[in-house]
Amino acid sequence: MIRLYGHSMLVVNGELVIDPHDGGSIGLPPPEIERVKYVLITHDHYDHNAYQGLLSEEVKMGLEGEFAFDGYKVRATKVNHDREGGKRRGKTSMYEIKYEGITLLHMGDVGEIPRESILKSFSPDVLAIPVGGLVTIDGKEAAELVKILNPDIVIPLHYWVKGLLLPLDPPDQFLHEINYQQIKGKEIDENNLKKYIFLL
């Protein structure tokens, strides 16, 4: 089960959180979760790294390489947070997480379409991808990546919603480009679903 908490924050099976935010600093409601086992952070920016508000056993940030814990196999790949080789915003990690027969790819704040050699190494069932532009790829680029990676479930990340204090684009362009059925809700059962986009 994947639960959405807005912006780039996901929680897998109630125990693994990716890119936690605190709500208030970005204009969203505070996440209704206090305790998790593990925290993965794609990069050390304030809208992704609010782990201090969570009780957790382990926090990992900005990783590269492979590791495993409690049935989760994680492969971390560093990519650029901008189109200038990381000179403006540094690097962000993409996390491929395998668990219970599912492969989730969280693309962090990827700022450009990664090299073909990187993309060919991924085959996600669930793709969490930024679509709001400005500091990440935009909706059109995100749609291109969805077509390349061909996941069953897409979770748009890092886009403007009412109240958000960051000047990002809404997901409209991305949704227009992708021919997936749209579902609104906070929880995703990632089994036996094909070609769905989940939005809060």
Features:
Metallo-beta-lactamase, Chain A; 200 residues; mainly beta; eight-stranded mixed sheet; 3 helices; globular; six-stranded mixed sheet; 14 strands; single chain
What is shown here, in short?
This protein is mainly β and 200 residues long. The protein has helices spanning 116-119, 139-149, 172-177, and strands spanning 2-4, 10-12, 16-18, 38-41, 58-61, 65-69, 72-80, 91-99, 102-106, 126-130, 153-157, 181-184, 187-188, 196-199. The chain is globular, with a radius of gyration of 15 Å.
Written overview of the protein:
The chain has about 200 residues and is mainly beta. It has a single domain (about 1-200), classed as Metallo-beta-lactamase, Chain A (4-Layer Sandwich), CATH 3.60.15.10. About 10% of the residues lie in helices and about 30% in strands. The protein contains three helices and 14 strands. The protein has helices spanning about 115-120, 140-150, 170-175; strands at about 1-5, 10, 15-20, 40, 60, 65-70, 70-80, 90-100, 100-105, 125-130, 155, 180-185, 185-190, 195-200. It has an eight-stranded mixed beta sheet with strand order 6-7-8-9-10-11-14-12, covered by helices on one side. The longest helix is centred in the last third of the chain and has 11 residues, at about 140-150.
